[in-house]
Write a structure and sequence with these properties.
rod-shaped
Length: 245
């Protein structure tokens, strides 16, 4: 029953569609980890069961070989006893000849018994060899699938890490997007632009103030000339004379 149970588990796991299981799983990584554990445990159980089966098979084969060897030995003993009986009979020693013929018959009976045992155990040995071959084949298939599972798990983990790295890069790039007014850099840029605008305003204001001062100087100059001409007039002169001077 134990061997049949192990063989059934091997068959079930071998028929499992890994991709279908992953597609239907909420967490593919956990599913893969569980499958790897199941396969690893089943492989260990299968190896133990196969080792036991092979051990029993080797015992049967040894018993079978011993039966064959014993049958051969009893056959040789029967032949030796029969020849001895023939030799004694040729010399006229009939009682001893009959005794060795009886020994030959006993040996032949033992030979037949050993042959029957060897013949009876042969089908069991053949059947056990088939079971062992199937178990070995299933075990090798499970080991191959286990490697596929491990490879799938490694691939999935690598893809997950890559996706995580890509998301981090995307988030980092988004956080420093100068076109994003809500970002720190956007706010800093706006502050700089305001400072630049303030400086420009101050420059324009300073320039207009300087122009006004120069205009005031021109006005003062005009007033000074008026006063000078007035003084000339009061002195009895004319404006043209002032111009001439």
């Amino acid at each position: 029953m134990a061997k049949q149970s192990i063989f059934g588990r091997i068959s079930t796991l071998m028929k499992a569609n890994i991709n279908a299981l992953l597609d239907s799983a909420e967490d593919p990584q956990k599913m893969l980890d569980q499958l790897v554990r199941d396969y690893t445990n089943s492989i260990a159980d299968a190896e133990s069961a196969i080792a036991e089966t092979i051990g029993n098979l080797r015992l049967l084969e040894r018993d079978h070989q011993e039966d064959i060897q014993a049958a051969t030995e009893w056959g040789n003993k029967a032949l030796a006893a029969s020849r001895k009986a023939d030799e004694l009979r040729t010399t006229g020693n009939t009682p001893d000849a009959d005794k060795f013929d009886n020994l030959a018959k006993i040996a032949l009976q033992r030979q037949i018994s050993e042959e029957n045992e060897a013949r009876a155990i042969a089908p069991t040995i053949a059947s056990q060899n088939e079971v062992v071959d199937k178990l070995k084949e299933g075990l090798n298939g499970m080991k191959q699938k286990l490697e596929q599972l491990k490879s799938k798990r490694s691939e999935l983990l690598a893809r997950a890490k890559t996706a995580e790295a890509q998301n981090k890069v995307h988030d980092a790039v988004k956080s420093i997007d100068v076109l994003d007014p809500t970002s720190e850099l956007g706010r800093f840029e706006d502050k700089v632009r305001r400072q630049e605008a303030l400086a420009t305003g101050k420059q324009e204001l300073a320039a207009s103030t300087l122009d006004a001062q120069f205009n005031q100087l021109e006005d003062v100059g005009e007033l000074t000339e008026v006063e000078a001409r007035l003084a000339v007039l009061k002195a009895g002169g004319t404006p043209q004379a002032a111009i001439g001077n």
